[in-house]
Specification:
The chain has 10 helices and 10 strands. By secondary structure, the chain is an alpha+beta fold. The protein folds into 3 domains: 94 residues, no CATH class; 81 residues, no CATH class; 138 residues, no CATH class. Helix 5 packs antiparallel against helix 6.
Length: 387
C-alpha cells in the first residue's frame, strides 16, 4: 500500500510539473488556457492535494480527478481556439483599416496632383472627348474625381454618357446585321445592351424575349428529338416483332411472343425461346421438347455448341398418344441465356437428352437457331434485360 502511494505521489509530481511547464507558454496565447493548466497542476501536485485536504477534509477519487483533468484540458483547447479566432478577426480589421488608409492616401495624393495641374488635366480630358476617345477620357478623369472638382466631374459624366451612347449604337448596328434566326448571337448582343444600359427597361424586355424564344426552341427541339426517338423505337419494335407469333392471356393480362417457326404443340423435337410481356415487365422462357416411340424419362440435357458445353437439369413433364412426349418449360437463367446465345451463333450444335437408363442425341437445326435469334432480337426491342 505504501509503495502504491509513493508511485502515485511520484506520478503526481511528474504530470503536475508538466502541467505547470505547459501553463507558462499558454498564458501568452490565452490567459484562461494558462489558468486551466494551472488547475490541472493543482489537482496533480501532492502538496496542493494535501493543503486542500487539510482545509476541506475532502479527498477526490481517481475517477473524479481524471474527469476534471480531461474537462480542463478540453476547456484549455476551447480558450486557445477562441483566442486564435479573436486574433484573426482583429488582424482582419487592422488590415482593412490599413487598406482603407492606403486608399485614402492615394486619393489625397491624386487630388493634390490635380489641384496643382488642373488646367492641363482638364484640357487633356476635353481633347479626348473632342477626339471621341470617350473610354480614354473616362480613364483620365476617374483618377482625379477625389479632388471634387466640379468641371472635372461634368467632363467625366459627359464622357460616360457619350461612351455609353457610342457603345449602344455599335451594339444596335451589330444587332441590325444579325439574322433573326441567330438567337444565340442576338441574346449575347442584347445582354451587352443591358450591361451598358442597366436602367433601360426596353433593352431588358427585348433581352428576356429572346431568352424566352431560345428556351422555347430548345423545348421544341427536345420534344422533336423525343418524338424521333420514339418513332425509331416503334419502327425497331415493329421490325423485331414481324417474325413473332402473338397470343393474349386476357385473364393474366400477359402477351406471349413465339417465333413463327416454333411449334405450337408438344409433339415435335425442338429447343426454343419465347417471351412473356406485361406492362412494365418482360421475361424469357425456354422450352426443351423430345418426342419418340420410347420413353427416356429425361433427367437432364447436355448441349455442345461449337465445342462449348452446357448442362441443364429440370423436372420434365410427360404425355403420350401413339408416340411419347417429354418436355421442360422453365424461366431463363443467366446460364440458360448463355447457352441459347451459343446455340444461335453456332455452326454445329448438338443436344443430348439423358434419361434414367438411356440417352438420345440430336443435331439442333438451322431453323431452331434462327428462331432463337429472332426471339432474342424481339426481347431486346421489348425492353427485356439479361437475367
Amino acid at each position: 500500500m505504501e509503495l502504491k502511494e509513493r508511485a502515485n505521489s511520484a506520478l503526481g509530481w511528474i504530470f503536475g510539473g508538466l502541467a505547470i511547464f505547459m501553463a507558462l507558454p499558454m498564458f501568452s496565447v490565452s490567459f484562461m488556457s494558462g489558468m486551466s493548466y494551472l488547475l490541472i497542476a493543482l489537482l496533480l501536485l501532492p502538496p496542493a492535494r494535501e493543503y486542500a485536504y487539510s482545509k476541506t477534509n475532502i479527498t477526490l477519487s481517481g475517477k473524479v480527478k481524471a474527469i476534471a483533468i480531461i474537462g480542463l484540458f478540453f476547456l484549455s483547447m476551447y480558450f486557445i481556439v477562441t483566442s486564435s479566432n479573436k486574433d484573426a478577426e482583429e488582424s482582419a480589421i487592422i488590415e482593412a483599416q490599413e487598406q482603407s488608409a492606403n486608399l485614402a492616401a492615394i486619393k489625397q495624393k491624386n487630388a493634390d496632383y490635380f489641384n496643382q495641374n488642373s488646367v492641363s488635366i482638364l484640357d487633356k480630358v476635353k481633347k479626348l472627348i473632342d477626339e471621341k476617345k470617350y473610354a480614354d477620357a473616362l480613364s483620365a478623369s476617374s483618377k482625379y474625381l477625389s479632388s471634387k472638382n466640379v468641371e472635372l466631374k461634368k467632363l467625366h459624366d459627359m464622357a460616360f454618357e457619350l461612351d455609353k451612347k457610342e457603345r449602344t449604337e455599335q451594339v444596335l448596328a451589330e444587332i441590325a446585321k444579325t439574322p433573326e434566326s441567330d438567337l444565340t448571337k442576338l441574346g449575347e448582343l442584347h445582354a451587352q445592351l443591358v450591361s451598358i444600359n442597366p436602367q433601360a427597361s426596353e433593352y431588358k424586355e427585348k433581352h428576356q424575349a429572346i431568352l424566352d424564344r431560345i428556351e422555347s426552341n430548345k423545348a421544341k427541339e427536345i420534344a422533336a428529338q423525343e418524338e424521333a426517338r420514339l418513332a425509331q423505337e416503334s419502327k425497331a419494335l415493329s421490325s423485331a416483332l414481324v417474325n413473332m407469333r402473338k397470343s393474349e392471356d386476357k385473364i393474366e393480362h400477359i402477351t406471349w411472343y413465339h417465333d413463327k417457326t416454333s411449334p405450337t404443340h408438344t409433339n415435335s423435337n425442338n429447343i426454343y425461346l419465347y417471351i412473356g410481356h406485361q406492362i412494365g415487365s418482360t421475361w424469357l422462357r425456354a422450352r426443351f421438347q423430345y418426342t419418340s416411340d420410347d420413353w427416356l424419362f429425361i433427367e437432364s440435357i447436355t448441349v455442345v455448341a461449337d465445342g462449348r458445353k452446357f448442362e441443364r437439369t429440370g423436372l420434365f413433364e410427360r404425355d403420350n398418344d401413339s408416340r411419347i412426349w417429354e418436355w421442360l418449360d422453365s424461366s431463363v437463367s443467366h446460364d440458360d441465356l448463355e447457352m441459347m446465345k451459343a446455340i444461335a451463333s453456332s455452326k454445329d450444335a448438338t443436344v443430348r437428352y439423358i434419361g434414367r437408363q438411356y440417352r438420345n442425341d440430336r443435331t439442333i437445326t438451322a431453323k431452331e437457331k434462327t428462331a432463337i435469334k429472332n426471339v432474342l432480337v424481339a426481347y431486346a426491342a421489348l425492353g427485356g434485360k439479361e437475367p
